[in-house]
Design goal:
about 10% helix; mainly beta; four-stranded antiparallel β-sheet; four-stranded mixed β-sheet; about 240 residues
């Protein structure tokens, strides 16, 4: 249920945006399709270690598919979203040594028009090793999230997620505690003893075990049916 809510929340952030795509492709139909029809083979776009990774599946191209978090050792496969996580262009570091805290930020596809108020990109976070994910907005009112996320670094360690925005003088960092059971999409205050820290710093020496710090995708791998019809029906 939490994964479904997060997926719908991410879709809602982009559903009102019109993407500059060929006439045969419509972003709203893509987001609300009952099932994506594309026959492209899954590819790993972000690897944490030998058994934890994110795959892009059923994709039309590197910007329009479905992303899944996989932990083959724990038998976990969790849906992250559609047309979103694969579009994050900044740095991403998952460095919790116990593997409980995970973060995967999202963006929108290039050419997306976010309207007068802009889009509010979200990130998926987990405090139970990827079994369940919740969502939170990590910056607001972007008119081009695909480009704007290049200025962001998102880092998770054993207790917090750090969102760093590159600025002219120095990065501006906001850190959020990752509290099991707590949702940033709700209106409840943080439990006692926890706080959001502003204008702070990312701890030094944090790295993803694999060394990967960006989402990557092989654009040469494409489906044989990129213009397959999209049938709405997703709830």
């Amino acid at each position: 249920m939490v994964r479904k809510i997060f997926t719908l929340a991410l879709s809602a952030a982009a559903i009102g945006c019109a993407a500059q795509q060929p006439w045969s492709f419509n972003l709203a139909d893509f987001l609300m399709a009952k099932e994506l029809p594309y026959d492209s083979p899954p590819q790993v776009i972000y690897r944490i270690d030998d058994h934890r990774f994110v795959t892009l599946e059923k994709y039309r191209d590197c910007n329009h598919g479905e992303t899944w978090y996989n932990d083959t050792r724990a038998g976990i496969r969790s849906h992250l979203g559609r047309g979103l996580v694969e579009n994050f262009q900044g740095r991403l570091i998952n460095a919790d040594p116990k593997g409980r805290n995970l973060v995967f930020p999202a963006a929108t596809a290039p050419g997306t028009v976010c309207g007068d108020r802009g889009c509010d990109p979200m990130l998926a976070y987990s405090t139970d090793g990827g079994r369940t994910f919740r969502g939170m907005i990590y910056f607001e009112h972007s008119f081009d999230p695909y480009v704007d996320t290049r200025a962001y670094t998102v880092v998770a360690d054993g207790s917090r997620v750090y969102v760093s925005e590159a600025r002219q003088s120095k990065p501006y960092v906001v850190s959020y505690p990752l509290v099991p059971g707590y949702s940033y999409t709700g209106k409840d205050a943080l439990p006692d003893g926890y706080e959001i820290k502003f204008d702070t710093a990312v701890p030094s020496g944090l790295r993803t075990p694999s060394g990967q710090d960006h989402i990557t995708c092989d654009a040469s791998i494409t489906p044989t049916n990129p213009d397959a019809p999209l049938v709405r029906g997703r709830q």
